[in-house]
Amino acid sequence: MRKSGGIRPIACGEILRRVAGKVLASDRAIKDLGANVLLRSGQVGVSVKAGADAGVHAIRRVAALYRDRDVVDRGILQIDFANAFNTLRREAIICSVNRHAPQLLGYALAAYEKHSALVVGDRGISSQCGVQQGDPLGPLLFSLVMHDVVVPPNPGEQPPVPAAPASSQAPVESAPASLGQPEPLDAAGGRPTPPEPAQAPGSGDPAVPPPPPVGSPAAPRATDGALSQAGLDLLTFFLDDGAAGGELDTLGHWLQGFEDRAAAVGLSLNRGKCRLSVAPGATIPEALQGIETFPLDDIQHLGVPCGSPETMRAFVEEAAKSAERKMRMIASLPDAHVALTLLKFCAGFVSVVHLMRAVGAVFDFACIDQATQSCLATITGIETDASAWALASLPVRLGGLGLHSCADTAAIAHIAATFDGEACLPSLVTPYVLPHAMLLDEDDTFLASLEDPRLAPFESVLEKIQNVLQARDNYGGRGQKVWSATVHDERRKALLISMTEELGRSGRLQGSALALKQVQVRARIQSCSAQHASAWLYGNAEADPRLWLSPAELAVAIRLRLGLPIAPMPSICRLCGTGSADVDGVHARSCFSGGRRTRMHNALRDVIADFARRGLLAPAVERPVFSNTERKRPDISYVRDGTTVVLDVAVTFPLQPSNPQYAKRAAEKPGGAATAYATAVKEGKYRGIIDNEPNPREWLAVPLVVDTFGA
């Protein structure tokens, strides 16, 4: 649905075309087009690591430079096209592909040389322009044309006319006049190499003199790419979203030529949606008349604020309110398991991670965490205490629910985004603006994140950040992932210590009972952290409907995972009549009178046997297969390639009080109780039986063990 009403049509691409596009997109030469070609026009939307971060950072630093120096004759123009992807001329696509990526020419001719037919019911629509929806290479093809619009090829050379494929003699149309001719190749046959960017003062030799005043019209420019041709301070595009910064007269002159070249390839500027950010008192030239003006403090790009810290806080505050409304809507859904899945993948942390990378600790994202905690309580009916919520905010791999804390991640996200985008800055700003863009000690947003008190407890993370500051090594664009993983690991260790210490301070348990409970806490989290132990937690739309839990089942499962009580008070077990049904559900999962564990065992055995039958393995269920004993009947057995495979299924409970040593092993061993039980019991039992068989090498025993936490 369109925001203004009506329906936005969506075309589904043909499968073979999508497969071919994905195969070509995986080629290294195609991936390198972003850094080798497109960056020369400021294009960061395709095959450029942290391209969006680089564009946002460049605009924010240039805006801060203009604002701090009270410059009134410069501004930042943000560009918007009208339906850009659907109006691009396809002959321009073919010519740009031939110029920059001839290895894609066959694909471009097959997909775009002739008009394609779109089928709507019993009607057909001729698709004659634009990149096709569902084309994996569509953004790249669009960006190649945009590159030739932003950086016109040298007019003195003729582009080579691509040969038609052997199966078709249709000529390839020549490039539109506005696209000019291809750029020259260097002696090695490649594109000219951009010059080394100027270094920031104090960053090492050779020293760069301090930049002249920003308002100086004689300031030297970059010697390569769109910046040198246009005389701009800033130029960046993320696909069709662009921004250019510089003197207002220069911006107006550049915009006229840019608009003419864009029109020649089918693109039209939507001046009603373009924005011009200037300082108060600026005189707008005639070429920029009709474009709405805004203060530099209010500038935005790619949906994030790039202005002053005050406007950043106001922007993110509104975004936080929108995120909270979304979570309230999710919490109102009748299916609790579906709601929990949407909360994890569509709301909360994931909905504001781009904002955190842009603004960092300038805004306190704790309100998002509180809304997430409230949404979880509404969905499951569980009010989490401080320890339970700290566990829930850990990644699933560490036994949590994966509802990451925004407040704890915002500073790391912004610091990582700043480092990740630095490599692109020399292509987005002129060398005499670049030193200011690289001076992080003058960046209020960066400093606020670096000094965030939430990072203080994590000395190892701060040390890694300082190493990056000195070496400018950003872990290959994985800074946020590396630092966040370290924070999560340290938080988990601290949480385990605090949870066990809290048990001692409560005074409810003493001596061996307290020691057992502390071991059980570690065993529970260890089992929940095992690989695949959390597969049930978030549903899959393609999964068996039976794998989606009812609201009551989901609430109990999450309470058990977080170590919360499942009953208001203890009682006598109605099944065995002797044991005490404790509030934590320990007796309920270890009582043999109800037969629940037997039913779980049989259900798991039958599912595995069914999979074996589908694989044509002819499994036998609980039949005697050993020659030296008939009492040992494995759950499943089958013969494959002369080897008798024996599968023994077991369902274990790591917190059973009758075997505290077993719980201790489960707490210490990676994989939790399932691995501990398989090693200690199952493997030993079948090893002795098989060794007594006539041909032991023809036997293979495989224990299939799960515990009640999913490990």
Outline:
The protein is of the alpha+beta class. 45% of the residues lie in helices and 10% in strands.
Task: Provide a descriptive summary of the structure in words.
The protein is of the alpha+beta class and 711 residues long. Helix content is 45%, strand content 10%. The strands form five sheets. Strands 4-5-1-6-7 form a five-stranded mixed sheet. A four-stranded mixed sheet has the order 12-13-14-15. A hairpin with a 2-residue loop joins strand 4 and strand 5. Helix 4 packs across helix 16. The longest helix is centred in the last third of the chain and has 28 residues.
Rounded to the nearest angstrom, the distance between the terminal CA atoms is 43 Å
Which sheet architecture does the biggest sheet show?
Answer: 5 strands, mixed
Strand content: 5-15%
* Unreliable stretches: 156-223
Number of helices: 27
Helix content: 40-55%
What do the pLDDT scores average to? 80
Structural class designation: alpha+beta
Oligomer: single chain
Strand order of the largest sheet: 4-5-1-6-7
Q: What would you report as the Rg, rounded to the nearest angstrom?
A: 32 Å
Beta strands, count: 15
Principal-axis shape equals globular
